[in-house]
Amino acid sequence: MLIETTQGNIEFTIPKHYKNIGYKVSGGADSAIVGWMLCKTIVEECNSEPVVYPITMDQPGKAYQVKFAKGVVAFLKLHWPTVTFSEHITGVGSEPITVVDPHMGDEGKANPNYNDDQRIITQRLLDQLKVRCIFNGVTANPSEFVGQDERHQQVSMPPERNRTGTPLPIQYSQDPHEHPDFNGPGNVYSPLINIDKKGVKELYEYFGVLDSMFPLTRSCENWTDDFSSHCGVCWFCLERLWGFGRIE
Fold first, then answer.
1. I want to staple 240 with a disulfide (CB 3.0 to 4.6 A). Which of 60, 85, 219, 231 is the partner?
2. Alpha helices of the chain — where are they, by DSSP H?
């Protein structure tokens, strides 16, 4: 499937020999639209054969991820009934070790082990369930400062969200001897890595799900157990507002 955006074309493909597919869904807008494209491709190009394994990890202190991810998956199941979803693989990250400013972007996620925790659950899925590839919703950093000063912006721009000339595929395992069945190009796909939130909005409009699926997602990284609304002031809320022109 080829999708044209003002930020470049996205060629969304699934290798034909991949029958079990991991889908990292955070409950956010980016991974949600990847799920839509994944389902559409499975139905239209793969005869609905691949099985999708949703993967989500909650973060203590703001554990909205599983709640919203399950809502996204339910929406996808409703609209793509011939796509087979396996059990939703979930986990809970380590407790935050430090107290940090929730307005400090990725550092504001506060848990230095969170990404490692995700890698562990993902690798276990690769090892035990023999998932052949994993799709995620990592996007490019914004092209301009988003609502905060330079210090906040620098902290808020994780290097894995830098644009790259080769977004598909990205190699998962760095050790060629560690996981020989899965190592090599094609393990982890980041189809949105070269578009930012404004480009993601284009995708929602292109597929006609801006008013139906977008409100089901959450991007806020504020420390709270109240998920009834976004805080509107953390960096991720500001990025969402910058990209979509709305938060809710």
1. 219
2. 29-45, 65-79, 114-129, 150-155, 197-207, 235-244
Distance, in Å, from the CA atom of 139 to the CA atom of 190, rounded to the nearest integer, reads 8
Predicted confidence (pLDDT) per residue in 151-201, tens digit: 444 444 544 555 555 544 443 333 333 344 444 434 778 889 889 999 999
Please check whether residue 85 is in contact with residue 52, taking contact to mean a CB–CB distance below 8 angstroms: yes
C-beta of residue 210 within 8 angstroms of C-beta of residue 200: no
What is the mean pLDDT of the segment spanning 197-218? 97
Number of domains comprising the chain: 1
For 52-74, b where at least 16 C-beta lie within 10 A, e where not — what string? bbbbbbbbebbebbbebbbbbbe
CB 33 within 8 A of CB 198: no
The answer, yes or no, to whether residue 20 has pLDDT greater than 50, is yes
Q: State how far the Cα of 59 lies from the Cα of 92, in Å rounded to an integer.
A: 6
Q: What are the structure tokens assigned to 17, written together?
A: 């020999």
Q: Please, are residues 93 and 66 in contact by the beta-carbon 8 Å criterion?
A: no
> What is the model's pLDDT at position 177?
34
- Residues recorded for the chain: 248
Strand partners, 54: 23
Q: Is residue 5 part of a domain?
A: no
- Range of the structural domain that residue 214 is part of: 18-244
Q: What DSSP character marks residue 217? A: -
Per the domain annotation, does 10 fall within a domain?
A: no
